[in-house]
Amino acid sequence: MSNNPTSSITRRAFLGRIGTVSGAAVMYQAMSALGFAAESSYSGPIELKGAPRDTSVLILGAGWAGLVAAYELSRAGYKVKVLEYNHHAGGRAMTLRGGDEYTELGGFKQKCQFDQGLHFNPGAWRIPYHHHGILDYARRLKVPLQSFNQVNENAYLHSSKAFGGKPQRFRYVRSDFKGHVAELLAKSLNQGGLDAALTAEDREKLLAAMRSWGILDKDYRYVASHAVDSSRGYKVDPGGGLMAKPESSTPVDSKTLLDSGLWKYLATDHDYEMGQAMFEPVGGMDRIPQALYNEIKPLVQFGAKVVNIDQDAHGVAVSYVDAVKGGAPTVAKADWCLCTIPLSILSQIPLQAGEPMKTAISAAAAYVASTKVGLQFKRRFWEEDERIYGGVTYTDLPITMISYPMEGQNLPGKGVLLGAYAFGPNSYTFASLDPAQRVREAVRLGAQIHPQYAKEFDNGVSVAWHRSPTTLGCFAPWRGDTRDRHYDNLCQIDGRIALAGEHASRLPAWQEGAILSSLDAISRLHARIVSNASGKKNG
Amino acid sequence: MSNNPTSSITRRAFLGRIGTVSGAAVMYQAMSALGFAAESSYSGPIELKGAPRDTSVLILGAGWAGLVAAYELSRAGYKVKVLEYNHHAGGRAMTLRGGDEYTELGGFKQKCQFDQGLHFNPGAWRIPYHHHGILDYARRLKVPLQSFNQVNENAYLHSSKAFGGKPQRFRYVRSDFKGHVAELLAKSLNQGGLDAALTAEDREKLLAAMRSWGILDKDYRYVASHAVDSSRGYKVDPGGGLMAKPESSTPVDSKTLLDSGLWKYLATDHDYEMGQAMFEPVGGMDRIPQALYNEIKPLVQFGAKVVNIDQDAHGVAVSYVDAVKGGAPTVAKADWCLCTIPLSILSQIPLQAGEPMKTAISAAAAYVASTKVGLQFKRRFWEEDERIYGGVTYTDLPITMISYPMEGQNLPGKGVLLGAYAFGPNSYTFASLDPAQRVREAVRLGAQIHPQYAKEFDNGVSVAWHRSPTTLGCFAPWRGDTRDRHYDNLCQIDGRIALAGEHASRLPAWQEGAILSSLDAISRLHARIVSNASGKKNG
Prior knowledge:
- The structure is a homodimer.
- Chain A is α/β, with parallel strands linked by helices.
- The first copy, chain A, has 17 helices and 22 strands.
- In chain A, strand 1 (56-60), helix 3 and strand 2 (79-83) form a beta-alpha-beta unit.
- In chain A, helix 3 (64-75) runs parallel beside helix 9 and helix 5 (170-190) runs antiparallel to helix 6 (200-214).
- Chains A and B meet through helix 2, helix 4, strand 8, helix 5 and helix 6 of A and helix 2, helix 4, strand 8, helix 5 and helix 6 of B.
C-alpha cells in the first residue's frame, strides 16, 4: 500500500486542464468584471468531464458532503456507492417532527411529541445569502426557501446581572448605544479633542453626521424625543383619531448601558454570517438534503457502520458492519474513496493512510460540544403577548439564546421555538442530563425571560451533539494554530482516499463548508483519476 | 341642520362607560403589568355593545377605514351600507397582477402585462410588527403573511456623485462607518479628550467597547482583517478543501465615506417603522382587505361617486352618481355617516359640517405626491448575479430606491421589482410622463445600478398617485403646525358625521393609521349613538 505524494497543481491550473469552466462560471467572471461579486469560493455547478469508464468511488457518509459527491460523481459517470451509519440522509442537517425517534449514546431515546406541521432543526438551521453552494442546490432541486431572520428589533437582550434581570428590547440597546457613542464623539469634536486629526471642514461634516446618525438634539445630546422614538420606539405609539397622543420612551443612560454589557450582542447585527438575507427551507432544514438524496436513493446503503478503511495502489477496501446488530464485517471495494466521516469518529477507525493525514485527523478530532433544545408551547405567546416574530433573544443564561419560529407567524395555534443552544461548558452540563431533564432545565431558565413558559409549555426534545453516535460533537474545532499546521494535510488526497466535510473546510459548522469541501475534493479526485488514466494510456 | 358641540368625554371614561374592555384588552393590560408591552394604541378586537335597534350608518369609501367600520358596525348590529367610487375594495392597499387594468386621470390606461403568479403593490407594501391592528385583522381572517425585509446587507447604497457612481454594498457602508466612528472615539479617549466627562474606569470600559463593537485592532485602528471581514464581508470568501484561502476586503477610508453621504441611508436600519420584523401578505397586499371585504360583500356598492354630503339633526343624506356614466344623483339616507373619503377629494365635495371640520379638511387637502413603478424582468438577475434577495437599494437618482421581491426567491424564472418610488418633485416629474415613459425612465435610471436592466427588461406598470381619481396623491400632508391647529377638529364628530382614514391618524400613509382611525371613530360614534338613544329613552 502506497501513500502517493500529492500533485502540486494549483486549483487554477486544474480548472483550466479539465475544462470545468461552466456557463455559470463564465457568467460569474463577467459579473466580477462588472464589480458585482466578491470572489466567491463557489463558481457555479461543477462539471466533471471525461470520467474513465467503469471507475468506482466508494463514499463514506450520506451527510451533505457525501450526498453532493454521490450526486455529482454519479452524474459524471462514476460507479458510486454510499455507506451511511444512520437510517436517514443529511447528517447534521436534520429535522425532528412529531413521531420521530432519536437515540443518543447512553441509551437516551426520545420520541418527538410535536403536533403535526411543527418541526425543530436541532443541527443546521439557517443559510446565509452568500452560501452560494447550498443555495444553488436548493435552486436546482426546486426546494422552496423562506426568510430566516436572525435579528429582531423587538426580541430581547438579557443579562441576569443587569436591569434587575429584566430583558431589554434589542432596539433599545441598539439605538441607545449608537446615540451615546455619537454624543460622546460630538462632545469630543466640540471640545477640539480631535482637531489634530481632522480638518475644520471634516470636523463639521462629522458633527453633522453624528447628529443625524445618533439622533442628537441641537445641542448634540441624545435625549428622549419623537425623533429618538422613531428609532428605539415610543412609550405610547402614535394612534388614530382622538386616541392618546404618542409619548416618548426614555433612553437608558450611557453608564447603565455600558455596564450592562448588553451592547456586546449588537455584533450579531453586524455579522457577515448572520445578516440579511438568511434563509431556511419551508418545512425543515432536511428538505434540501432529502431532495438531493431522492436523486440518488439507490446508491445509498443505510445502517452501515464502517470499521476499517484500507487501500493499496489499486483500490480501497472498506469493512462495515450492521450499525444496530453488529456481526461479521462486509467488505466494499472500489477504485477510490471519498470519506466524509467526522474526524471525531474517523480518528477511531483503523485507516490506511500516511502520517500527515492521520496526524491531521487526530488534531481536530475533539469536536466542539453543543446542545439544542426544542420546545413546543400551547400558544405563540411570544407573538401574541410580546410581538416577537422570529429572530433571536440572547441571554447570559446557560441556554445562550431563544430563537422564535418563522413559520406560521401571526396565525393562531401552537409553536415550537429553540429553547436552548448551549455551547462549551454549558453544553456539557446540558448533555450530562437526560433529555427530559434538559427540557425541564431549558423551561426553567427560559421562564426568566418569558414567564409564560410555566403555563404554556407543552413538550420538548433535545439533541446533545456530544452524545450523537455519528459525530460525538457539533463540529471540528481547529483551535489555535491547528489549522495552519494540519489543514492542508487533511485535505490532500492520500493515495486513493480523499476526505470531505465541514471539518475539511474553512467554514466550520456550516452546511456550505461541507458542500464546498466536497466539491473541491471530488474535483481534485476526478483530476487525479483522469490524470492516472491518461498516464496509463500514454505509458 | 345643526353642528353639535363635541362631547368632551375622555377616551378612558368612554371605554369605561360603554364597557369595551374586551378579553384581549384585559390580557394586554396584564402584559403591560409584566412590563412586556409598550402602550400600543391598539388594545385588541373592538367590542361595540348595545347598538340601538334599526340604527343605520352610511360609510363612504371601502378602503381600510371603510371596510373596518363596515365589518365592526355590522357585527355590532348596525344597518350598514358602503358607497365606493372604485370597482374594488381596499383603496390604496392595492395589488396589480397580469390582466389588471388601471386608469389614471388624463385618460392614461394601462393593462398589466405581468406573467401569472407575479404581482406588484403600487400602494401599501409592508407591515411593521407593531402595527397591531392590521396584524390582528390578518390573524382573524387567517391571511398568511411572510417576512418583508427592508434592510438587506448585500443590497446597494448608491450616489451618482460618489465612488464614480458605483453602488456600494450596504454592509460596507455600515461596517466602515461604525469602524471609523469607533476609531475616532477611541483616539479621543486615548488622548484624554473626554477625561472630564468620564471616570478612568468608564473610560477603559468604553475603550474596550469601541474595540469590540467597531472591530478595531490592538492599536484601536479600523483596518482590513478577517475580524473586519466577519462584519463587512471578504474579498475572497472562505471555502472548502484546498480552495483559495480567504482574502480580506479593504475598508473605505473615513473621508471618502463621510463625503459620499451614503451613511445617511444607514438610518433605515435603525428605524422603528422599518426594522425587523416586517410583513407582507403572501400573494399581494390586497389579500387582507380583500378577505375583510369578503365578509361584508353585500353591504358594498361599487362605482358610486359621492357628489354631496348633507345632514340635519335627524340623519344624513348623501348624493352619488355612477362613477363611470354620471347621470342623475341617487340619494342614500342613514342615521349616521362615517366618511373615509381622502381629504384631497372630500375638500371638493359639498359637505354640511361646521367650520372647524371644514377648515381642517382644507388644511390637509393637498396630498403628498408619490409615484411607483413596477418592472418585470426576464430573469431574477439581482439574485442570480448579485445575490440580493429582497430588501432595498437606495439611490440619489429620482427613482429613490429599488426594492426586490420576497416571493419566489432563489427559484428560476421571472421577477417583478419596485423600480421607482419617487416623492415630491421627482414624483411630479414622473407623473408628468405617460405610464410607458415612466417605465422607460425607471429602466434608464435603474440601469445605472443594474446594467442588466437593458437586456432583461420585460414590461412594467406605474401608478402616479397624484393622478389617482380617488386620492389625488399618496397621503395627507399635515405639514408644519397644521396638525396642532386642525387635527382634533378633523377627528371630532360633527353632528352625525365622523371622518376616518390615514388622514385622521398620527400614522400618515400607513394602513394601520386608517385602521386605528376607523376603530377610534366608530368607538366614539357608537358611544354618541348609545348616549343619544339613552337620552331619548330617559327624556
